[in-house]
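User: Can you write out an input/output pair for a complex, sequences first and structure second?

Assistant: Here is one pair. Inputs:
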Amino acid sequence: MAAEDMTTDGPLESATHPRTTRSAVIVGGNRIPFARTGGAYVKSSNQDMLTAALDGLIARFGLQDERIGEVAAGAVLKHSRDFNLTREAVLGSALSPETPAYDLQQACATGLETVIGLSNKIKLGQIDSGIAGGVDSASDAPIAVSEGLRDILLDLNRAKTTVQKLKIISRIRPKDLAPDAPNTGEPRTGLSMGEHQALTTAQWKISREAQDELAYNSHRNLASAYERGFFDDLITPYRGLNKDSNLRADTTLEKLSTLKPVFGKTLGSEATMTAGNSTPLTDGASTVLLATEEWADAHGLPKLATVLDGEAAAVDFVHGKDGLLMAPVFAVPRLLARHGLTFEDIDFFEIHEAFAGTVLSTLAAWEDEEFGRTRLGLGGALGKVDRAKLNVNGSSLAAGHPFAATGGRIVASLAKMLHEKGTVDGRPARGLISVCAAGGQGVVAILEAA
Amino acid sequence: MTDKYTQLVSQGLGKDVAKKLGLPQPVVLRRHQPGAPLVTGPVLVSGDSAGADDLATTMLGWGLDVRRNALPKEKLGAIILVLDAVQHPADLGKPVLTAGASLRDLSPNARVITISRTSQSARTPATAAARQGIDGLLRSLAKELRAGSTANGILLDEHEDEHLATTSPSALGALRFFLSGRSAYVDGQFLTIGSASGSLPNDADKPLAGKVAVVTGAARGIGAAIARTLHRDGARIVAVDIPAAGDHLAAVANEVRGTALQLDISRDDAGHRIIEHAVERYGRLDIVVHNAGITRDRLLANMDESRWQSVIAVNITAQLKINEALLASEHFKESPRIVSVASTSGIAGNRGQTNYGASKGGVIGMVRSTAALMEPFGGTINAVAPGFIETEMTAKMPFAIREAARRLNSLKQGGQPQDVAEAIAFLSSDSAGGISGEVLRVCGQQLVGA
């Protein structure tokens, strides 16, 4: 439908329905428990954690010495030495060393994008199996030297004589020695992600109570999922941790309501975003095993769900047209339209909780008649998400959010939920994933029970 | 591997000093390695019954250096005392004294094995006396042997019309087990051969080829050794442990090229989950090793309900429930094997372990009773009762208590997890098809308790 129209003005314009001859199934997943930064994984590198998550997946599905079609993973906070992070993790794992791998980086959407990318390769017939994943450590984050010092050091490297070297060294000033620590600030606005979301939260008039309630539900849902053993075949303990360390099973709305706001304190309106309804910095890794149905059958492995399709979007947050984390608002209607689906056809909504305000602003935009007409190009509001179907086993507010690992967490959990649900009114159960990302981006996907 | 004291007194100055001071002199035991010979030297088959002749002929066929009469000064690898035809205690003297004359010619780590018939099946008091006399004889002799040599007995059961030959499959299987390094820490014990079922393996180094084995509590210690040993013998492994032990479990599963199943065995659906996993992944289930167990030691006077109940729930109730599911499954019908890990605490008792002793005594009762239920489809169930085994758990005992526990047996040392695993591997094999409802102690002939 878009072939003759190469401009991208229409929000619903997207690629034509992909012609595929085979489906990409999710066999299962494995992650390590997510740990608050500075906690259990303080001494673990990205490579350590990704290797651990891979080895747990390999053990769960008996993939030792198996040559997997391709492994794709990535990290958002990445050392320059980790230029081949995923391949190095593969080499350190029990997989066949003949398994190729590549790194991918799309901010917080990294994990979901690896799933979509490998699924596409499977559907195209390029590979029969793949492992998607992601990892992030804010504890072991790279720290760069200052730009001034970097300049001097590079000059020093090029200097030939001792005199030249001494001259260059003499240029170093104390201020050059201050390290350049990573932050979550947007390069084009200088605002942190939290401050950006505070703008959006205020714009959509999301109340403090609504945000706290979402956070409370996230903890409660995640705790009860642990309680009934839901994660027994999704998580492998690591470094003495067997549950996400951010989970507060005993938190209450009352406790959440006492926390002081941390973002949006200078906006003029009431500041509503607290440490309780925002995700903390987290360390962790996740993996997802993808395959053709034939490969799964030949290996005697389960087929939990299929990856129906994915869609990416981006917004112009730099000029304030949309909020930094609002790109999924546009990606979802495009993806639904491509498959002729509405919210009625979705049984589980997995909307990544970067901040409670992000989820609630997204839902508010979809429920807004005018936004639907003017921005989404629809006849009215996109629709209302049934809260009973939203993040039913908890999400990032409770589990934490190691940036690139979140996609894999959601995909594996949702695939299991869909498998348990089976069919709804004679059709396969369906789940929608929405992940917002830095740089005004968003990636969304639909899974169906296999 | 071997404890430091054993290393010290096994050779050189340490050996001389220990001998002069009359200290215990444990030696490094001969343990099985793939490809290792069955025995370390010629085998003297003593006894003049037809059964002795048949056995000697069979062993010649195995390529062993078989003697029917001792040669002066020749070092022997084993003495097999065939007493299957004794009718009266007076019959014991001649063959026993003849064998006794050769005891000084035994090499280190040699074997003495009696073959006789169960006293319960004797038709006259005199025959019963002769047969039961062998029990006392063997157990005493085992305490006289030195330098890692052991004495064990094979008992042939008799039914109305079934007169088991000395060369019946499981008699030969047990003989090979006792001769080999697989029985290194089994001393002063009897194995009863109940029927002519079973068959010797085509490949002596892969007796479990083609089998699929589930090992519970496989993440560490004895369970991990069982997984490794069954894998070494050719089985494909499903390694089971509680989700919280998942990281160690994954490492074991990857090492043995098997699959990890994170499962709390005390869950009601544990048996179903185990069967489903094995059948889905491997298409079959042949062997289940109930190894998972916990201790919650307290004197009974100080015992609280949760300590008592949790030990009973994990150590015996879980096994009973899983066995029910196995017995009801169509996938567990082709000469399947169940082997439970009991404990000498369940036989001789142990201060502070009333709960544990009850659970392990319970395992023995369960095994004896379940044997009849397994018989219709050629299945067997047995228990292995370890004595003091060198594990992470026993390494935490106070030094003096540990040292005493370690030396109070005929071999003057603790056993290795592999020793327990070897006994389990044997009882899991086709060659043990005629052995069921038995409890085999792997305790180095512990001096206290029965």
